[in-house]
Amino acid sequence: QVQLVESGGSSVPAGGSLRLSCVASGSTYITACMAWFRQAPGKEREGVASFSSGTFATSYADSVKGRFAVSQDSHRTTLYLQMNSLKPEDTALYFCAAMTIWGPCGLRDVDYNYWGRGTQVTVSS
């Protein structure tokens, strides 16, 4: 079992920056991939960024490339999402997720089997 707790969400003006954190506890050694997803009101959940615990490879949604950066601490217990040049369309509830099956770390939510409860990011225009 893996427990995930997100933090760092806030309200910021457009153009601002935020850093989200996700602390993992429990059987963290079984996590092959960790990722950030987001869901805006009335919209489907979408993948934002993923990180491979084995290869350190990352992947990003086209909408955030060049603005967001995902990273993990050396203990593999905390996942970060640095968000720069924020836009109003980035407003959403951001979730941290973990995958325990080793393989490519994509952005399909069905591949992730552990989820946090989310942290709210609101970007005002």
Average of pLDDT? 95
Helical amount among residues, as a percent range?
under 10%
Q: For the CA atoms, what is the radius of gyration?
A: 13 Å
Give the helices and strands as they follow along the chain.
EEEEEEEEEEE
Q: Biggest sheet, in brief? A: 7 strands, mixed
Measured between the Cα atoms of the first and last residue, the distance is 40 Å
What coarse outline follows from CA principal-axis ratios? globular
> What structural class should be given to the helix and strand makeup?
mainly beta
Strand content: over 45%
Supply the number of helical segments.
0
The low-pLDDT segments are none
The tally of beta strands, per DSSP, is 11
Topology diagram in text:
Elements: E1 2-7, E2 11-13, E3 18-26, E4 33-39, E5 46-52, E6 58-60, E7 68-72, E8 78-83, E9 92-99, E10 114-115, E11 119-124
Parallel strand pairs: 2-11
Antiparallel strand pairs: 1-3, 3-8, 4-5, 4-9, 5-6, 7-8, 9-10, 9-11
